[in-house]
Specification:
This protein is α+β, with helices and mostly antiparallel strands and about 350 residues long. It has 2 domains: about 190 residues, Gcn5-related N-acetyltransferase (GNAT) (Aminopeptidase), CATH 3.40.630.30; about 160 residues, Aminopeptidase (3-Layer(aba) Sandwich). Helices cover about 35% and strands about 25% of the residues. The protein has 12 helices and 15 strands. An 11-stranded mixed β-sheet has the order 2-5-6-8-15-9-14-13-12-11-10. A 4-stranded antiparallel β-sheet has the order 1-3-4-7, sandwiched between helices. Strand 3 and strand 4 form a beta hairpin. Helix 2 packs antiparallel against helix 9, helix 7 crosses helix 10 and helix 8 crosses helix 9. The longest helix is centred in the C-terminal third of the chain and has 19 residues. This is BioF2-like acetyltransferase domain-containing protein. Pfam families: Acetyltransf_6. InterPro entries: Acyl_CoA_acyltransferase, BioF2-like_GNAT_dom.
Length: about 350
Amino acid sequence: MLSGGVAGIDRDVWNDVVRRCGGTTFYAWEWLAAFEEAPPGTFQPAHLLAYRGDELVGVCPAFLVHHCPRLDYAYSLSAAPGLRDRGPVLLAHSLAGLIGGPLVLPGHRDAAAALIAGLEQAASVLDAWAWGVANLPAGAATGLLLREGYAVAHVATAYHIDTTWPSPAEYWSTLPGRRRRKLWREQRQRAEGLVIAETRLDADTMVRLAHDLLRAHGTPVDVFPEAYLRALHRHLRPYERTIVAADADGIAAMFSGWQFGAEWSLWIAGLRAARYAAFEPYHSMLAHTIEAAVTSDTRVLNLGRGNAPIKRRYGAIGTPLFLALKSANRRHDALLHAWCRQLEVRSQASPDGLDVVSRCC
């Protein structure tokens, strides 16, 4: 079944399936509602739902992408001219999120293949020149798409921490002693004058700090437009878990995050860049986040993309994320394979993938 937006889908039924599938914030009905309300680009919702009888057994959020700053940046890395001018692409579901692809309930593995086939059918109906999956984690689904002839490229890496430890002390004991002592020293030095806390952040502060950090890196704010950030803030409020660092002048840094199910995703960073260097408050904020996760019902802490050396020092493990694309036109398919090869080479040249400091893919 093809749906033109989450407004026509029962929120509780959708979210129940996502939770039972182990899905995260980026599959939540509310995340999709925010994206549809104020997208960072021009997107047309085209979500796929798989039923067995009357039971919803699988979902695959997807958008027909007419314009996306992240996708345009990836297009710009291609030696093949005119990729962005060929028309819309159907993607499941967005380069903005930290994961993509179909979700199916246990015992319904065939539904995943049906959803992928449905993606191709929807692309034909919607007149997309290509279709595929964005930010697909390495695993069985990636293998399925490779066997189906998709052009595949590793475009980013998301970093996760298993937080199912009895206590923070036991988690820290898993790190080498010398590294642990160095991290604690850096936390003390860089957190001087700062108070670290978990809180709910107001939308104005979230927008200001996120845009300050983007500008400090020379990144256009169209990857996270103000209207989009405000829609996220409003729709995802029930799941918010944000970590901030505050000084005498107010909130100086943030990790805006949301927990859906057992995974807490820290997705949007922000910083009063005129006052602090990039990593100055982050060490103490990261340590606080890990301890908050260990002492709550969080089982996985998703630290997102970028800053790979810092995250690995704190014990995070990288999960490769892939872009997989296909076209019904053989010439277009050849261009996609060549482009994905170029993206793969560019991605492998950096631990952060496709220049996520300048354009978060």
